[in-house]
Protein backbone atom coordinates (compact mmCIF):
# COMPACT_ATOMS: atom_id res chain seq x y z
CA UNK A 1 0.00 0.00 0.00
CA UNK A 2 2.88 2.35 0.79
CA UNK A 3 4.62 1.68 -2.52
CA UNK A 4 1.93 3.42 -4.59
CA UNK A 5 2.38 3.54 -8.35
CA UNK A 6 5.97 4.83 -8.32
CA UNK A 7 8.70 3.13 -10.34
CA UNK A 8 11.52 1.81 -8.12
CA UNK A 9 15.13 1.23 -9.15
CA UNK A 10 15.87 -2.46 -9.66
CA UNK A 11 19.05 -4.39 -10.41
CA UNK A 12 16.94 -6.58 -12.67
CA UNK A 13 16.33 -3.64 -15.02
CA UNK A 14 18.92 -1.01 -14.20
CA UNK A 15 18.36 1.14 -17.29
CA UNK A 16 14.60 0.77 -17.50
CA UNK A 17 14.03 1.67 -13.85
CA UNK A 18 16.65 4.39 -13.43
CA UNK A 19 15.04 7.32 -11.53
CA UNK A 20 13.26 9.97 -13.56
CA UNK A 21 10.85 12.74 -12.65
CA UNK A 22 7.42 11.49 -11.64
CA UNK A 23 4.88 13.88 -13.12
CA UNK A 24 5.01 17.12 -15.06
CA UNK A 25 6.60 20.54 -14.52
CA UNK A 26 4.27 22.79 -12.49
CA UNK A 27 4.17 26.58 -12.11
CA UNK A 28 5.51 26.42 -8.52
CA UNK A 29 9.15 27.41 -8.07
CA UNK A 30 11.09 24.88 -6.02
CA UNK A 31 12.71 25.85 -2.72
CA UNK A 32 14.76 22.64 -2.73
CA UNK A 33 16.80 23.33 -5.82
CA UNK A 34 15.74 21.06 -8.66
CA UNK A 35 17.56 21.48 -11.94
CA UNK A 36 16.72 24.53 -14.09
CA UNK A 37 13.66 23.51 -16.10
CA UNK A 38 12.00 26.77 -17.16
CA UNK A 39 11.91 30.54 -16.83
CA UNK A 40 10.03 32.69 -14.34
CA UNK A 41 7.75 35.65 -15.16
CA UNK A 42 10.80 37.88 -15.59
CA UNK A 43 12.41 35.56 -18.11
CA UNK A 44 15.03 34.32 -15.63
CA UNK A 45 16.06 30.65 -15.45
CA UNK A 46 14.11 28.92 -12.68
CA UNK A 47 13.61 25.53 -11.06
CA UNK A 48 9.97 24.43 -10.98
CA UNK A 49 8.49 21.58 -8.99
CA UNK A 50 7.20 18.45 -10.67
CA UNK A 51 3.70 17.27 -9.83
CA UNK A 52 0.76 15.15 -10.87
CA UNK A 53 -2.92 15.10 -9.99
CA UNK A 54 -4.01 12.84 -7.14
CA UNK A 55 -6.61 10.22 -7.94
CA UNK A 56 -10.07 10.32 -6.37
CA UNK A 57 -9.27 7.13 -4.42
CA UNK A 58 -6.14 8.71 -2.94
CA UNK A 59 -8.01 11.85 -1.92
CA UNK A 60 -10.64 9.69 -0.25
CA UNK A 61 -7.96 7.78 1.66
CA UNK A 62 -6.36 11.03 2.82
CA UNK A 63 -9.70 12.21 4.21
CA UNK A 64 -10.39 8.96 6.07
CA UNK A 65 -9.27 7.73 9.50
CA UNK A 66 -8.62 4.18 8.30
CA UNK A 67 -5.87 2.53 10.35
CA UNK A 68 -5.65 -0.43 7.92
CA UNK A 69 -6.51 -2.79 10.77
CA UNK A 70 -7.97 -6.13 9.60
CA UNK A 71 -9.96 -6.51 12.85
CA UNK A 72 -13.70 -5.79 12.78
CA UNK A 73 -14.54 -3.36 15.64
CA UNK A 74 -17.89 -5.13 16.05
CA UNK A 75 -16.08 -8.34 17.03
CA UNK A 76 -15.21 -7.08 20.54
CA UNK A 77 -17.35 -8.12 23.49
CA UNK A 78 -15.20 -6.95 26.41
CA UNK A 79 -16.85 -6.58 29.80
CA UNK A 80 -16.55 -2.87 30.52
CA UNK A 81 -15.40 -2.14 34.07
CA UNK A 82 -14.64 1.25 35.63
CA UNK A 83 -13.82 2.29 39.18
CA UNK A 84 -13.42 -1.12 40.83
CA UNK A 85 -12.16 -1.08 44.44
CA UNK A 86 -9.48 -3.75 44.23
CA UNK A 87 -6.90 -1.97 46.39
CA UNK A 88 -4.11 -2.38 43.81
CA UNK A 89 -1.60 0.44 43.37
CA UNK A 90 0.73 1.05 40.44
CA UNK A 91 3.81 0.45 42.58
CA UNK A 92 2.54 -3.11 43.18
CA UNK A 93 3.12 -3.82 39.48
CA UNK A 94 6.74 -2.68 39.38
CA UNK A 95 8.94 -5.55 38.25
CA UNK A 96 6.02 -7.77 37.18
CA UNK A 97 5.55 -9.07 33.64
CA UNK A 98 3.41 -7.12 31.19
CA UNK A 99 0.94 -10.02 31.15
CA UNK A 100 0.82 -10.58 34.91
CA UNK A 101 -2.83 -11.17 36.01
CA UNK A 102 -2.56 -8.39 38.61
CA UNK A 103 -2.66 -5.84 35.76
CA UNK A 104 -6.30 -6.71 35.10
CA UNK A 105 -7.27 -5.79 38.66
CA UNK A 106 -5.38 -2.50 38.42
CA UNK A 107 -6.92 -1.57 35.07
CA UNK A 108 -10.40 -2.30 36.41
CA UNK A 109 -9.87 0.50 38.94
CA UNK A 110 -9.51 3.22 36.30
CA UNK A 111 -12.28 5.63 35.43
CA UNK A 112 -13.42 6.68 31.96
CA UNK A 113 -11.90 10.09 32.71
CA UNK A 114 -8.54 8.42 33.42
CA UNK A 115 -8.64 6.78 29.99
CA UNK A 116 -9.45 10.05 28.25
CA UNK A 117 -6.80 12.10 30.10
CA UNK A 118 -3.95 9.67 29.50
CA UNK A 119 -4.82 8.67 25.93
CA UNK A 120 -5.98 12.10 24.77
CA UNK A 121 -3.87 14.64 26.69
CA UNK A 122 -0.31 13.48 27.42
CA UNK A 123 1.76 16.33 26.01
CA UNK A 124 5.04 16.78 27.90
CA UNK A 125 3.83 14.52 30.67
CA UNK A 126 1.18 12.00 31.70
CA UNK A 127 -1.51 12.96 34.19
CA UNK A 128 -1.49 11.66 37.78
CA UNK A 129 -4.08 9.04 38.74
CA UNK A 130 -4.75 9.29 42.45
CA UNK A 131 -6.79 6.08 42.70
CA UNK A 132 -3.80 3.88 41.76
CA UNK A 133 -1.00 6.10 43.06
CA UNK A 134 0.32 7.09 39.61
CA UNK A 135 2.43 10.26 39.80
CA UNK A 136 2.68 12.92 37.13
CA UNK A 137 5.22 11.70 34.58
CA UNK A 138 7.30 14.60 33.27
CA UNK A 139 8.55 14.27 29.67
CA UNK A 140 11.24 16.68 28.47
CA UNK A 141 12.24 17.62 24.93
CA UNK A 142 15.45 18.39 22.98
CA UNK A 143 17.86 16.02 21.24
CA UNK A 144 20.99 17.65 22.71
CA UNK A 145 19.96 17.77 26.36
CA UNK A 146 16.90 18.32 28.55
CA UNK A 147 15.11 21.62 27.94
CA UNK A 148 13.74 21.28 31.49
CA UNK A 149 13.69 18.57 34.13
CA UNK A 150 17.49 18.35 34.12
CA UNK A 151 20.30 20.73 35.01
CA UNK A 152 20.10 23.07 32.01
CA UNK A 153 23.27 21.58 30.52
CA UNK A 154 23.27 21.30 26.72
CA UNK A 155 25.57 19.18 24.57
CA UNK A 156 26.85 19.21 20.98
CA UNK A 157 24.35 18.09 18.36
CA UNK A 158 23.84 14.42 17.44
CA UNK A 159 25.66 15.11 14.17
CA UNK A 160 28.81 15.94 16.13
CA UNK A 161 28.34 12.84 18.28
CA UNK A 162 28.04 10.63 15.19
CA UNK A 163 31.25 12.19 13.81
CA UNK A 164 33.20 10.77 16.77
CA UNK A 165 32.50 7.14 15.83
CA UNK A 166 32.86 6.55 19.57
CA UNK A 167 30.31 4.15 21.04
CA UNK A 168 31.49 4.73 24.61
CA UNK A 169 30.69 8.44 24.36
CA UNK A 170 27.16 7.64 23.16
CA UNK A 171 26.52 5.35 26.12
CA UNK A 172 27.98 7.84 28.59
CA UNK A 173 25.91 10.65 27.07
CA UNK A 174 22.73 8.66 27.66
CA UNK A 175 23.82 7.94 31.22
CA UNK A 176 24.45 11.63 31.80
CA UNK A 177 20.98 12.56 30.54
CA UNK A 178 19.51 9.98 32.92
CA UNK A 179 21.57 11.34 35.81
CA UNK A 180 20.46 14.91 35.08
CA UNK A 181 16.86 13.69 35.02
CA UNK A 182 17.29 12.28 38.52
CA UNK A 183 18.51 15.68 39.64
CA UNK A 184 15.91 17.74 37.77
CA UNK A 185 12.80 15.56 37.77
CA UNK A 186 12.24 14.51 34.14
CA UNK A 187 11.05 10.92 33.63
CA UNK A 188 10.80 10.65 29.84
CA UNK A 189 13.00 12.14 27.12
CA UNK A 190 11.67 13.12 23.69
CA UNK A 191 14.82 11.78 22.04
CA UNK A 192 16.93 10.41 20.46
CA UNK A 193 15.95 11.71 17.03
CA UNK A 194 17.19 9.44 14.27
CA UNK A 195 15.57 10.10 10.94
CA UNK A 196 17.74 10.08 7.85
CA UNK A 197 19.66 12.96 6.22
CA UNK A 198 18.09 12.42 2.79
CA UNK A 199 19.20 15.94 1.76
CA UNK A 200 21.54 18.49 3.35
CA UNK A 201 18.68 21.02 3.35
CA UNK A 202 16.26 19.30 5.73
CA UNK A 203 15.34 21.71 8.51
CA UNK A 204 16.02 19.36 11.43
CA UNK A 205 19.16 17.59 10.25
CA UNK A 206 20.93 19.00 13.29
CA UNK A 207 18.80 16.73 15.50
CA UNK A 208 19.51 13.61 13.42
CA UNK A 209 22.77 11.70 13.17
CA UNK A 210 23.57 11.00 9.55
CA UNK A 211 22.48 9.80 6.14
CA UNK A 212 23.16 6.22 7.24
CA UNK A 213 20.59 4.18 9.19
CA UNK A 214 23.14 1.86 10.77
CA UNK A 215 25.33 4.69 12.07
CA UNK A 216 22.25 6.46 13.43
CA UNK A 217 21.06 3.30 15.18
CA UNK A 218 24.46 2.53 16.63
CA UNK A 219 24.52 5.81 18.54
CA UNK A 220 20.80 6.13 19.32
CA UNK A 221 20.56 2.63 20.79
CA UNK A 222 23.43 3.30 23.17
CA UNK A 223 22.00 6.65 24.23
CA UNK A 224 18.68 4.95 24.92
CA UNK A 225 20.36 2.22 26.95
CA UNK A 226 22.41 4.74 28.93
CA UNK A 227 19.34 6.77 29.88
CA UNK A 228 17.39 3.60 30.71
CA UNK A 229 20.13 2.48 33.10
CA UNK A 230 19.10 5.47 35.26
CA UNK A 231 15.38 4.65 35.01
CA UNK A 232 14.52 7.06 32.20
CA UNK A 233 12.37 6.10 29.21
CA UNK A 234 13.58 7.63 25.94
CA UNK A 235 11.05 8.16 23.14
CA UNK A 236 12.98 7.12 20.03
CA UNK A 237 11.64 9.26 17.18
CA UNK A 238 10.14 10.02 14.71
CA UNK A 239 8.60 6.67 13.82
CA UNK A 240 8.92 6.65 10.85
CA UNK A 241 10.04 8.03 7.46
CA UNK A 242 9.94 11.63 8.74
CA UNK A 243 12.74 12.94 6.53
CA UNK A 244 11.27 16.22 5.25
CA UNK A 245 10.16 19.32 7.15
CA UNK A 246 8.10 21.02 4.42
CA UNK A 247 4.33 20.42 4.59
CA UNK A 248 4.67 17.58 7.06
CA UNK A 249 1.43 18.46 8.82
CA UNK A 250 2.44 20.41 11.92
CA UNK A 251 0.70 23.65 10.98
CA UNK A 252 -2.90 24.75 10.67
CA UNK A 253 -4.26 23.86 7.27
CA UNK A 254 -1.56 21.29 6.50
CA UNK A 255 -2.74 17.72 6.27
CA UNK A 256 0.48 15.72 6.38
CA UNK A 257 3.10 14.71 3.86
CA UNK A 258 2.37 11.54 1.88
CA UNK A 259 5.46 9.30 1.80
CA UNK A 260 5.78 6.63 -0.88
CA UNK A 261 8.41 3.90 -0.47
CA UNK A 262 8.77 0.16 -0.94
CA UNK A 263 9.34 -2.51 1.69
CA UNK A 264 13.01 -2.94 0.85
CA UNK A 265 13.85 0.69 1.59
CA UNK A 266 11.52 0.66 4.61
CA UNK A 267 13.40 -2.21 6.22
CA UNK A 268 16.94 -1.61 4.97
CA UNK A 269 17.13 2.15 5.49
CA UNK A 270 14.44 3.90 7.48
CA UNK A 271 13.53 1.35 10.15
CA UNK A 272 17.10 0.26 10.84
CA UNK A 273 17.84 2.73 13.68
CA UNK A 274 14.49 1.96 15.35
CA UNK A 275 15.07 -1.78 15.12
CA UNK A 276 18.56 -1.36 16.58
CA UNK A 277 17.09 0.51 19.56
CA UNK A 278 14.54 -2.27 20.08
CA UNK A 279 17.41 -4.76 20.17
CA UNK A 280 19.80 -2.65 22.27
CA UNK A 281 19.56 -5.10 25.15
CA UNK A 282 18.32 -4.92 28.72
CA UNK A 283 18.99 -2.88 31.84
CA UNK A 284 18.56 -3.85 35.48
CA UNK A 285 15.42 -2.82 37.33
CA UNK A 286 15.44 -2.72 41.12
CA UNK A 287 12.14 -3.26 42.91
CA UNK A 288 10.56 -4.64 46.07
CA UNK A 289 9.19 -8.14 45.64
CA UNK A 290 6.27 -9.26 47.79
CA UNK A 291 6.28 -12.87 49.00
CA UNK A 292 3.23 -14.98 49.81
CA UNK A 293 3.43 -14.00 53.49
CA UNK A 294 3.39 -10.30 52.59
CA UNK A 295 7.06 -9.61 53.29
CA UNK A 296 9.03 -7.33 50.96
CA UNK A 297 12.53 -8.14 49.76
CA UNK A 298 14.88 -6.32 47.39
CA UNK A 299 14.88 -7.83 43.92
CA UNK A 300 16.40 -7.14 40.50
CA UNK A 301 15.27 -8.18 37.05
CA UNK A 302 16.19 -7.29 33.48
CA UNK A 303 13.85 -5.15 31.40
CA UNK A 304 14.09 -3.87 27.86
CA UNK A 305 16.19 -0.71 27.58
CA UNK A 306 14.01 0.82 24.87
CA UNK A 307 10.54 1.40 26.30
CA UNK A 308 9.05 4.41 24.44
CA UNK A 309 8.50 5.54 20.84
CA UNK A 310 7.27 8.78 19.27
CA UNK A 311 5.46 8.54 15.95
CA UNK A 312 5.65 11.13 13.17
CA UNK A 313 3.60 13.79 11.38
CA UNK A 314 3.88 12.23 7.96
CA UNK A 315 2.08 9.32 6.35
CA UNK A 316 3.26 5.93 5.13
CA UNK A 317 1.43 5.73 1.84
CA UNK A 318 -1.82 7.55 2.51
CA UNK A 319 -2.03 6.47 6.18
CA UNK A 320 -0.78 8.66 9.05
CA UNK A 321 2.17 6.87 10.67
CA UNK A 322 0.74 7.34 14.18
CA UNK A 323 -2.44 5.60 13.06
CA UNK A 324 -0.97 2.87 10.85
CA UNK A 325 -1.81 -0.66 12.03
CA UNK A 326 0.74 -2.36 9.70
CA UNK A 327 3.51 -0.11 11.05
CA UNK A 328 2.69 0.00 14.76
CA UNK A 329 1.01 -3.33 15.44
CA UNK A 330 2.45 -5.24 12.51
CA UNK A 331 6.11 -4.30 12.92
CA UNK A 332 6.58 -2.57 16.29
CA UNK A 333 4.26 -4.68 18.46
CA UNK A 334 4.27 -8.05 16.69
CA UNK A 335 7.66 -8.34 14.98
CA UNK A 336 9.68 -6.48 17.62
CA UNK A 337 7.53 -7.57 20.60
CA UNK A 338 7.29 -4.02 21.95
CA UNK A 339 5.05 -3.53 25.00
CA UNK A 340 6.15 0.03 25.75
CA UNK A 341 4.65 3.50 25.40
CA UNK A 342 3.91 4.92 21.92
CA UNK A 343 3.06 8.65 21.77
CA UNK A 344 2.35 10.91 18.80
CA UNK A 345 4.44 13.86 17.72
CA UNK A 346 3.02 17.26 18.68
CA UNK A 347 -0.68 16.87 17.91
CA UNK A 348 -1.97 20.31 18.93
CA UNK A 349 -2.50 21.28 15.28
CA UNK A 350 -2.65 17.86 13.61
CA UNK A 351 -6.29 17.77 12.55
CA UNK A 352 -5.75 14.39 10.81
CA UNK A 353 -4.38 12.75 14.00
CA UNK A 354 -7.54 10.95 15.12
CA UNK A 355 -7.43 9.49 18.63
CA UNK A 356 -9.43 6.35 17.90
CA UNK A 357 -7.44 5.62 14.73
CA UNK A 358 -4.30 5.93 16.87
CA UNK A 359 -5.32 3.35 19.49
CA UNK A 360 -6.83 1.02 16.88
CA UNK A 361 -3.43 1.04 15.17
CA UNK A 362 -1.72 0.05 18.43
CA UNK A 363 -0.37 3.41 19.65
CA UNK A 364 -1.22 4.86 23.04
CA UNK A 365 -1.36 8.62 23.64
CA UNK A 366 -1.44 12.01 22.01
CA UNK A 367 1.16 14.69 22.59
CA UNK A 368 -1.39 17.38 23.32
CA UNK A 369 -1.75 19.86 26.15
CA UNK A 370 -5.46 20.71 25.96
CA UNK A 371 -8.72 18.80 25.51
CA UNK A 372 -9.75 20.90 22.49
CA UNK A 373 -6.77 19.49 20.55
CA UNK A 374 -7.07 15.88 21.78
CA UNK A 375 -9.38 14.87 18.90
CA UNK A 376 -10.25 11.73 20.82
CA UNK A 377 -13.99 11.00 20.87
CA UNK A 378 -13.81 8.26 23.50
CA UNK A 379 -17.10 6.36 23.75
CA UNK A 380 -16.78 4.80 27.21
CA UNK A 381 -19.61 2.32 26.53
CA UNK A 382 -18.30 1.13 23.16
CA UNK A 383 -16.54 -2.29 23.50
CA UNK A 384 -13.99 -1.51 20.74
CA UNK A 385 -13.13 1.92 22.17
CA UNK A 386 -12.80 0.40 25.63
CA UNK A 387 -10.67 -2.53 24.41
CA UNK A 388 -8.15 -0.37 22.55
CA UNK A 389 -8.02 2.35 25.22
CA UNK A 390 -7.40 -0.30 27.89
CA UNK A 391 -4.52 -1.72 25.86
CA UNK A 392 -3.12 1.79 25.37
CA UNK A 393 -3.21 2.77 29.04
CA UNK A 394 -1.74 -0.62 29.95
CA UNK A 395 1.29 0.18 27.76
CA UNK A 396 1.64 3.61 29.37
CA UNK A 397 1.33 2.38 32.96
CA UNK A 398 3.70 -0.54 32.34
CA UNK A 399 6.34 1.93 31.17
CA UNK A 400 5.75 4.36 34.05
CA UNK A 401 5.73 1.60 36.70
CA UNK A 402 9.19 0.44 35.67
CA UNK A 403 10.72 3.90 35.38
CA UNK A 404 12.31 6.47 37.68
CA UNK A 405 8.89 8.12 37.99
CA UNK A 406 8.24 5.64 40.81
CA UNK A 407 11.37 6.51 42.79
CA UNK A 408 10.37 7.02 46.41
CA UNK A 409 7.30 4.79 46.22
CA UNK A 410 6.91 1.34 47.73
CA UNK A 411 3.97 -1.01 48.30
CA UNK A 412 1.77 0.53 50.97
CA UNK A 413 2.94 4.11 50.39
CA UNK A 414 0.42 6.85 49.61
CA UNK A 415 0.86 9.21 46.65
CA UNK A 416 -0.01 12.84 47.26
CA UNK A 417 -0.11 15.04 44.17
CA UNK A 418 1.62 18.39 44.57
CA UNK A 419 2.73 21.20 42.30
CA UNK A 420 4.40 19.65 39.27
CA UNK A 421 7.69 20.85 37.82
CA UNK A 422 5.99 21.54 34.49
CA UNK A 423 3.51 23.86 36.25
CA UNK A 424 6.41 25.73 37.90
CA UNK A 425 8.17 26.08 34.54
CA UNK A 426 5.02 27.34 32.82
CA UNK A 427 4.37 29.80 35.66
CA UNK A 428 7.93 31.10 35.45
CA UNK A 429 7.69 31.49 31.67
CA UNK A 430 4.41 33.38 31.99
CA UNK A 431 5.98 35.66 34.61
CA UNK A 432 9.04 36.34 32.45
CA UNK A 433 6.94 36.98 29.34
CA UNK A 434 4.60 39.27 31.28
CA UNK A 435 7.60 41.22 32.56
CA UNK A 436 9.05 41.54 29.06
CA UNK A 437 5.69 42.68 27.72
CA UNK A 438 5.47 45.30 30.47
CA UNK A 439 8.96 46.56 29.58
CA UNK A 440 8.07 46.76 25.88
CA UNK A 441 4.89 48.71 26.67
CA UNK A 442 6.77 51.05 28.99
CA UNK A 443 9.43 51.67 26.35
CA UNK A 444 6.79 52.28 23.67
CA UNK A 445 4.95 54.78 25.85
CA UNK A 446 8.10 56.66 26.78
CA UNK A 447 9.45 56.56 23.24
CA UNK A 448 6.38 57.62 21.26
CA UNK A 449 4.17 59.65 23.61
CA UNK A 450 4.50 63.41 22.92
CA UNK A 451 6.62 65.12 25.54
CA UNK A 452 5.27 68.08 27.51
CA UNK A 453 6.97 71.35 26.65
CA UNK A 454 9.26 72.66 29.36
CA UNK A 455 8.26 76.04 30.86
CA UNK A 456 11.04 78.45 31.76
CA UNK A 457 10.25 80.50 34.86
CA UNK A 458 12.37 83.60 35.47
CA UNK A 459 12.78 85.14 38.94
CA UNK A 460 10.95 88.42 39.57
CA UNK A 461 13.03 91.54 39.63
CA UNK A 462 13.27 93.07 43.04
CA UNK A 463 11.66 96.50 43.33
Q: Would you mind describing this structure in some detail?
A:
The protein is an alpha/beta fold. It contains twelve helices and 16 strands. Strands 5-6-7-8-12-15-16 form a seven-stranded mixed sheet. The protein has a three-stranded mixed sheet with strand order 9-13-14, with no helix packed on it. A two-stranded antiparallel ribbon has the order 1-4. It is globular, with a radius of gyration of 26 Å. The termini are far apart. The mean pLDDT is 91.
Strand content: 5-15%
Report on the biggest sheet. Answer: 7 strands, mixed
Distance between the termini: 106 Å
Spatial order of strands in the largest sheet? 5-6-7-8-12-15-16
- Global morphology: globular
What is the radius of gyration? 26 Å
The averaged pLDDT comes out at 91
Structural class from helices and strands? alpha/beta
Unreliably modeled segments: none
Discrete helix count:
12
Q: H/E order of the elements?
A: EEEEHHHEEHHEHEEHHEEEEEHEHEHH
Record field, number of beta strands: 16
Percent range of helical residues = 25-40%
Short characterization:
By secondary structure, the protein is of the alpha/beta class. It is built from twelve helices and 16 strands.
Amino acid sequence: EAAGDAKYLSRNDWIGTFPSHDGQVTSIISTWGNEINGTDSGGNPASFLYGKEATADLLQDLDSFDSRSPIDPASFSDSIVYGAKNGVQLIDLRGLDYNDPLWEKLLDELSAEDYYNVVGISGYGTAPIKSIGKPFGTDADTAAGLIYGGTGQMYPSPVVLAMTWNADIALRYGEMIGTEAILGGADGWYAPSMNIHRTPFSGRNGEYYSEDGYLSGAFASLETKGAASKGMYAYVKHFAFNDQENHRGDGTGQFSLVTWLNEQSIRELYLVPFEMCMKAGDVDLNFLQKSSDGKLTNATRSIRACSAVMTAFNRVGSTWTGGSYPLITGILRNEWAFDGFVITDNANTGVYMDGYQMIEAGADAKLTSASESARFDFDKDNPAHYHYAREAIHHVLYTIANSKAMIGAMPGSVYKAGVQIIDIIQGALYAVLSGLLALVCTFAVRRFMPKRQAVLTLPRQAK
